[in-house]
# Entry
Amino acid sequence: MGLTVHPNIAKLVPYSPGKPLDELERELGICDAVKLASNENPLGPSPKALAALRDAGGTLHRYPDGGAHHLTRALADRWKMVPNQIIVGNGSDEIISLLVKAFLSPGEEAVMADHTFVMYKLAVTGGHGIPIEVPLTNWRHDLPAMAKAVTDRTRLLFVCNPNNPTGTMVTRTDVEALMTAVPDHVIVVFDEAYYEYVRDPQFPDSIHFVKQNRPVVVLRTFSKIYGLAGLRIGYGITTPEILNFLHRVRNPFNTNSLAQQAALAALQDEDHVATSRALNEVEMATVEKGLQALGLNPLPSQANFLYFDTKRDGPQLFEKLLQEGVIIRHIRGSLVRVTIGKPDENARFLDALAKVLEQVPCVDQGMPHP
Ligand SMILES: *Cc1c(COP(=O)(O)O)cnc(C)c1O
# Structure
């Protein structure tokens, strides 16, 4: 008998990681390719995190602290919570998987936007649940429609805020209405991977719902502004009740000791975070202006990336940019996402884009301008 696999697994499309920078450089015979594809911090990790990594090396023969004691305490202090409201994961991706594993039985539903972080759909489908995808309105989550999509079979509802890939956000008022409309058998997951970049004062205080003991999970990560994507570490803030079930389904040593120590040091390096945020703000404005000068209109973004309609065949434009040594993310059709980099990287991107826009024929797919 041959290999058999459940149809839900067979229909999954593996996540496409894109070409590594050094591989592209080898192919092109250059040494200054630019990667603006994964929303990483262009400044890299905090020097304090790097120092912590060197110190941690000597204990690598030991298993990590399975409870991530020190990091959990520091995060609890930071958010004025207690340690049994914090769970640390192998990236916040892992916590999404743990939520599915703990709370979604086969055939049960998870509500999400139709144009958002792919991990929700992957995890839900792979966990034999049913993703219920609600279209964005004006490139933002349609929270009233998402609340209406809730049924007796709904277990999870994902709000990616700011949303990846659009960079748009929902406000405090939007979220309060959602939390009034959604019944308590649904866990509302606020994925706030870009929280530290947000500038809009209307951004919701989602931790507040956890403090009220509502069934809410707030996801944050060390992969973005903290510059530790390669170590894989993120966390969730939630109620002790939800936390207890998540701990039952996680691997005992889900986060490694290097990641725990580096994250702890990174959390304390507030200067590095402030510098990174300031750079992003200035450079985002520069890239926005550069795109507008090319006749393109990025959506207003609260994160560290811009989403825009190239008005060109997307895959072709992406390939041409690669040939120029610039890696961005093609999303669908004529739509792409570009991460804000350092000044020289952004200039490289804008120059290369100006060049390839001339080479790729126009398509009329059209993104209605907000
Ligand atoms: C990058 C990102 C994450 C972070 O994932 P990690 O597993 O913590 O690296 C989570 N959610 C969204 C929406 C993201 O864009």
